[in-house]
Amino acid sequence: MAPKTLLVVAGPTGIGKTALAIKLAKHFRTEILSADSRQFYREMHIGTAVPNKEELQMAPHYFIQHKSIQDSYTVGDFERDALKLLDKLFQNHDLVIMVGGSGLYIDAVLYGMDSFPEIDPSIRERLNKELAQNGLEPLQKELVSVDPLYSQKVDMQNPQRILRALEVWRATGKPYSSFLGRKNISRSFNSVIIGVDAPREVVYQRINKRVDAMMAAGLLKEVEELKEFKGLNALQTVGYKELFKYLDGYCSLEHAVEEIKKNTRRFAKRQGTWFRKNTSIKWVPYDLPFHLIVEDVKQELRKLV
Fold first, then answer.
1. Which of 248, 234, 235, 240 is closest to 215 using CA atoms?
2. pLDDT recorded at residue 284
């Protein structure tokens, strides 16, 4: 039996990946896995641009709001769960779609996770104390100093990513980046990756409009309702941490909204940098007519035969 195919729709935030994935799922009569780590949590809706009810009804979706912000859910957990689900879906479909902007999660499913040494839990406890007492900036500086390579591609505003890299460094004396890229796992399925592309000014304009739409849809109220949980890892993300600062009296609402836009633009730039490293991606313009995108997908699928 010929291998099945996972069709990945990737690209920066706000580029239109969800709408494209749904159209492709309807065209190929298949189902969708979300690889957007921000959309895993059921308490976070507006600020993560979760597909609305109408979109979810257009095609079956998985890994959308299936966890609580109080749950621990790692990229390794996602890899395991996604592969298990794919085995099931491939029993009924020759092609399944995965969509998202979380490059690390996409790569975990496509290529596997790298192996890391076991870390003494006390090291993470010390790092958490340092974060609570001194804030993120000293830890950011330490990471830049000890692992400049990883600091250039990681989300430097994500405390958990920084703590993870530093605990590996402190435990082994080796930079986190030195453990990356070692594993080359073969999967039982083929993969085709479609990247949705747009000029930077278009991406930034779409991001700014999306943030304004989120605020109009009630993002501030959503964040207010989550304030008591603001220390949880899931909420250390763009759109939430800025509004927590406003609610704590550190800035004006106008400033907080501008910070969301700025940090989202930075996030999109890092996403683009991550995906551009993957030479297997077939890039398509964000405004390319759908029938031409389908032809591009079919052309990539024919290469697998």
1. 240
2. 97
Tokens representing 270?
Answer: 């890092």
What are the structural domains, with CATH classification, of the chain? 4-113+183-302 (3.40.50.300), 121-179 (1.10.20.140)
Is the whole model's pTM more than 0.70, yes or no? yes
Q: What pLDDT is recorded for position 97? A: 98
Backbone torsions φ then ψ of 191, nearest 5 degrees: -140, 145
Phi first, then psi, for residue 80 (nearest 5°) are: -60, -50
Q: Are 153 and 221 in contact (CB under 8 A)?
A: no
Does an H or E element contain 150, and which? helix 148-151
pLDDT in tens, 290-300: 999 999 999 99
What kind and span of H or E run contains 197? Answer: strand 189-197
- Tens of pLDDT along 166-186? 998 988 888 888 887 666 678
Amino acid letter at 127?
L
